[in-house]
User: What shape does this take?
Amino acid sequence: MKACNLTPWFLTILVVLSCPAPSRAADPAKPAGSEVKHVDAQEAQKLIAKKKVVVLDIRTPAEYKAVRIAGATNIDFLAPDFEERLTRLDTNKTYLVHCASGGRSTKSLPVLSKHQFQFLYHLDGGIKAWEKAGLPVEKAP
Assistant: This one.
């Protein structure tokens, strides 16, 4: 009687079952758990006009004071208490996140996702794109 050699099949099945599933958070612009939509300045302005978003300006306080979108909430991404300050916000609201040109706000998306923010819009190009589009800003007196 001949013995059946199942070792190669067994090892193949074992390897397949032990491989982790692909990560949904591989793209930092689309963190797992959050819905992120990228918008240009014109689309962002329409969302603000329809009162569909809370504007979250993550630039420094000095940048915010100099020029800002009316009604924006400022929480400095570079501040040591950035994450702690996020915990004071309602994670069920929809936020439009921006910085000066898009770098810091893109980096903030995984952090916002970690804190369970569900609905996010990202203003591509930041406030510089907003100003370039000729949209209104508030300036320090």
